[in-house]
Amino acid sequence: MNIILLGPPGAGKGTQAKRLVEERGMVQLSTGDMLREARTSGTAMGNKVAAIMDAGELVTDAIVIGLIEEKLQGDIGGGVIFDGFPRTLAQADALSEMLTRNGQTLDAVVAMEVNDHELIERITGRFTCAKCGAGYHDAFKLPAAEGVCDVCGGTEFTRRKDDNEESLQTRLTEYYKKTSPLIGYYHAKGQLAWVKGLGSMDDVAGDIAKVLDA
Ligand code: AMP
Questions:
Q1: 58, 5 Cβ separation under 8 angstroms
Q2: Active site amino acids
Q3: How far apart are CA 214 and CA 209, in angstroms?
Q4: For 183, which of 4, 6, 81, 200 is 20 to 30 Å away at the CA?
């Protein structure tokens, strides 16, 4: 089963994708993670996209389509969760072509609904353990012992450079301008299902499971 998690920044796509990986053995393909990895390893492409990402703008279709194309050639036995891809109509068309070429189908597009106020609150407070990547939040989820990761005991934490109010505003504008048209695109194909992105992680995961098992 191949699915897309669609939604604005901060809707919880990454969190829910990780759960699906654990619970269903699916493969998470996050273009945001791939681009951040390219930056950390200092590849030419990583250097090229750094300023664009920090500003909250979208990188070119050709770059992200290339990243996904490469991953789809690997082992994706349990199915793929596309997280943060596609983000434009051109990317959606390219994905459709790539899947068809590989004899695969897109089985569902789960659109996660969260209001802007909630998104801003979620994003500007989030941080992760630098060692294991466990996620925390200034208001909703602090580590049990101050400054110590609950999961691995790490004591260093990081915040995404684009998780500030200015970049977030650009990310939201990019989302509404370029990504939200995908809602109509997939609705017209009969593939779209809505879930409420508010509520506990378990509730959202339960709603997504209902869509996938339907
Ligand atoms: P994310 O982690 O999904 O929020 O992505 C972080 C940033 O990476 C975005 O703000 C964009 O600059 C870039 N990015 C990630 N995925 C895409 C995509 N599919 N198309 C264009 N830019 C992307």
A1: no
A2: 13, 87, 126, 160, 171
A3: 8
A4: 200
Residue nearest to atom 11 of ligand 1 (CA): 58
* Helix then strand then coil, % of the chain, to nearest 5: 50, 15, 35
Instruction: For a ligand 1 pocket test, name from 16, 52, 58 the mutation site with the most ligand atoms within 8 angstroms of its C-beta.
Output: 58
Q: How far apart are CA 79 and CA 214, in angstroms?
A: 16
φ, ψ (nearest 5 deg) of residue 125: -105, 0
Give distance in angstroms: CA of 52 to centre of ligand 1: 9
Average pLDDT over residues 87-101: 97
Task: Give the Å distances, CA to CA, from 158 to 74, 121, 146.
Answer: 30, 17, 15
Q: How confident is the model at residue 78 (pLDDT cuts 50, 70, 90)?
A: confident
Inter-residue contact 81 to 166 (CB < 8 Å): no
Q: What is the value of pTM for the model shown?
A: 0.92
Helix or strand run (H / E) with residue 35: helix 31-40
C-beta 13 within 6 A of ligand 1: no
Q: How many CB atoms lie within 10 A of CB 80?
A: 24
Q: Distance between CA 93 and CA 90 in Å, rounded? A: 5
Q: Are 129 and 156 in contact (CB under 8 A)?
A: yes
What's the first-to-final CA gap in the chain, in angstroms? 12
Ligand 1 within 6 A of 31 CB? yes
Name the percent of the chain lying above pLDDT 70. 100
